[in-house]
Amino acid sequence: MGGTVSESRTAIVTGAARGIGAAVAQRLARDGFGVAALDLDESSCSGTVSAITSAGGHAVAIGADVRSADAVGAAVRRAADELGPPTVLVNNAGITRDNLLFKMTEEDWDSVMEVHLRGAFLMSKAVQAYQTEAGWGRIVNLSSVSALGNRGQSNYSTAKAGLQGFTKTLALELGKFGVTANAIAPGFIETDMTVATAERLGVPFDEFAKGAAEQIPVRRVGQPSDIAATVSFLVSEEAGFVSGQVIYVAGGPRG
């Protein structure tokens, strides 16, 4: 799906320790990018980096709190030093603090906003300096079908909707520098996060996933590889005329 890229091109993937982030990092490495796998704990990315390097790719694990401007600046500089100027950014880092509105704490609200929105802002601001200098770049932000509203997720839904507005604005501001910005809004994807949701509801995951699949037109739940394949296209040369879009990868029409 993705096009051939120069080995000198570097991609940064946040939240790359597991799930969607790990799958995206590994796919971009197969596409020819050097990959900086970034997560809060550097050691948590060792599996992702090992999978990439054992397959002949180039990757480095970087620990950083995306809520911290200093940490983000240091992480992006390290990626540039060790792999080359980063021109692709995938803002995937995220957390959930689900609760109904009347039970949700200010900390639940603030922590979700800071990781998703402040994190994407700080990472994009740091990376765009390299992209505009290169005259080429790709930013992909991970939104969610929850942006359309989801019971018990007023914080997460708001953050994911905010990322869509952020994406469209980046596309307007950075387009003249050869930089595109797009968002992917996954539906039900089989990850540690959805397994944890099933556990919280007291439902076996197989039963939880089966119930979800019955509501999806293609009659299956998504896999991290489904999202990684879409990222691969959006960061390719061929996707240079696609910008400011929100793509719902959800097994059916949404939005």
**N- and C-termini, Cα separation:** 24 Å
Q: Quickly give the structural class.
A: alpha/beta
Q: Please name the CATH topology.
A: Rossmann fold
Question: What's the helical proportion of residues?
Answer: 40-55%
CATH superfamily (homologous) name: NAD(P)-binding Rossmann-like Domain
Q: At CATH's second level, what is the architecture? A: 3-Layer(aba) Sandwich
**What is the CATH C-level name?**
Alpha Beta
Mean pLDDT: 96
**Helix and strand pattern:** EHEHEHEHEHEHHHE
Strand line-up of the largest beta sheet: 3-2-1-4-5-6-7
β-strand number: 7
Tell me, what's the shape? globular
Low-confidence stretches: 1-7
Q: Tally the helices: what do you get? A: 8
* Largest beta-sheet characterization: 7 strands, parallel
Radius of gyration: 17 Å
Query: What is the count of distinct domains?
Result: 1
Estimate the strand proportion. Answer: 15-25%
Features:
single chain, 8 helices, disordered N terminus, 7-stranded parallel sheet, Rossmann fold, globular, 255 residues, 7 strands, alpha/beta
